[in-house]
Amino acid sequence: MLSALAFVGVIALVTGLIHFYLWKRLVRDTTAPGRWRRAGAVAALVLALLIPATLIGTRARLYWLAWPGYLWLALMFYLLVLLLVLEVPMLVARLVLRRRAVAAESTAAAPEPALVGAAGPADPPATEAVAQPDHDASRRLLLARGAAIFAGLTAAGVTGYGVRNALGPPELDRVRIPLARLPRSMDGLRIATVSDIHLGPLLGRAHTERIVSMINGLDADLVAVVGDLVDGTVAELGPAAAPLRDLRSRYGSFFVTGNHEYYSGAEEWVREVDRLGLRVLQNQRVEIAARGGVLDLAGVNDPSGGELGSADGPDYAAALGDRDPSRPIVLLAHQPVVAVEAAKYGVDLQLSGHTHGGQIAPFNLAVKLEQPVVSGLGQVDGTKVYVTNGAGFWGPPVRVGANPQITLVELRAP
Questions:
Q1: Residue 97: which H helix or E strand, with range?
Q2: Is residue 132 part of a domain?
Q3: Is residue 6 pLDDT above 90, yes or no?
Q4: What contacts 318, CB < 8 A, 6 or more positions away?
Q5: 354 within some domain
């Protein structure tokens, strides 16, 4: 309870600070005191409250909050990034304006030489002080408004582009991966791999139907669904997941849990996915006999299962230990970081998701701090790791720099 309250407190603090900064740059710096500035302050407060309201409300089935809340979250992110990037050139411009203003004041204050006549120095003519317009302030206002307009239009454009990508059909990535122990007879074995479908407030049955249709069109030998299928309970999303029963492959369809299954009732979803005809590999290994050869296919639970106190985390020894070392082994694991442990068991290839490829650039740079591979093919301690971008999205319906993806992995013999 205390940890949850602390988490909510941190989210509220960070959200408040971000919106205060946005208000300062987009409202206070661009308007004079008065009605428009007050309206901007109210808007900033409402939008700041919208973020936690969306995160909490969607879990309470207030799904009407999802579209405005998550779209603002994406737009807020890009406004923040762009304005932070503009801070340096804005600072330089302000310093230049200030230096020019100081130079102008020094020139205006310089005394003129006195005219000396026969009767002595002439008295200066009597003049009235004339107020000079504050050109420096007007230039600063123009600069602030220009930066706000540029950031606003760019953020809106990038967000709109990201929405189109996120809601469009997944791209097909075909990748060939050689495995040293793969028998020649199994050369060309194909595994259709998909992750992070994320059925929930914004993605439903039509999303699942499109993915199933694409996978069935690949005529794959195996289908691997590597976690984060849902963001909700079976009661809420069972009908949306139902088209999975139509998946077709020669040697079976398989599933492993992702972290979001553990937020959504993992035990119920394991039973439901099994009922739909996918075999759930919970720290298990199966033999795939195909084309006269044998390959071990293993799956481990997501680490979140253990972290959430259910003692349902990955058991590498159960899934990977005590096996024929001459056979190649492919591991299904939701998070790429699992490869750090899996490599100790001589895993040839790990298929993962979880990262969404970063989903919203430049957020992919932060994902690199947690996961050894963010997108595509990499290697961890001798184990090859392929990470698919995922076919859905989480949170904002936005993808920038990492389009939704379904992958056809073709295994090649040496």
A1: helix 66-109
A2: no
A3: no
A4: 283, 284
A5: yes
